[in-house]
Amino acid sequence: MxxxxxxxxxxxxxxxxxxxxxALRDVTFEINEGESVAIIGKSGSGKSTLMHQLALLxxxxxxxxxxxxxxxxxxxxxxxxxxRNQEFGFVxxxxxxxxxxxxxxxxxxxxxxxxxxxGKRNRIAMESLKSVELEDKASVRAADLSGGQKQxxxxxxxxxxxxxxxxxxxxxxxxxxxxxxKVIELLFxxxxxxxxxxxxxxxxxxxxxxxxxxxxxxxxxxxxEDK
Length: 227
Description:
By secondary structure, the protein is an alpha/beta fold. The protein is 36% helix and 28% strand. The protein has helices spanning 47-54, 77-87, 103-113, 118-131, 147-159, 177-194, 205-210, and strands at 3-14, 21-32, 36-40, 62-67, 70-71, 88-92, 165-169, 197-201, 213-218, 221-226. Strands 6-7-8-3-9-10 form a six-stranded mixed β-sheet, with helices on both faces. It has a four-stranded antiparallel β-sheet with strand order 2-1-4-5, covered by helices on one side. α5 runs parallel beside α6. The longest helix is centred in the last third of the chain and has 18 residues, at 177-194. It is globular.
């Protein structure tokens, strides 16, 4: 099994001098293709900072990050953008939907950025909505959806480019337990059936235990791995 993510002595520092804060300290690990991995730890442990590094939304202060054996720090802006748009899918606690736009238009956005023609991108987006059982909501305003429907819309949007990795940051944080369970079931179904690598930041120990592996952070350091 090949590593799709490899971090070597990854560190991230914010500020300087008296205001310097080391959010990540020499973090080293690998994540293999098709794995489900939970990043866990208390608030302020560095979980979200690490997620932003892995998803190429931020750059490390030092250390190396490889995505599919390619060094991220050597990539040009268009290469980073390609990875984020074509290889990664994102599901966040805050839904980041345009509430005044339709569900379909929210889901189709990554395909629009990728330059696909309207007819083709609408067909792909409808297939993605079908996979999360929301095809009947395509013309509904996103603002009129329930919390669970909004999160499933985000999952549909994450899927339209057939990503190899889905990053989920507290994906059930704004949902009740029943709705949250359905969203988690959907994410793990995609992980198992499509082989999508699933990387989840979570405070929920039950969700973390469902993953193949847990990476535990404390004060920016990787202090444990549980399988």
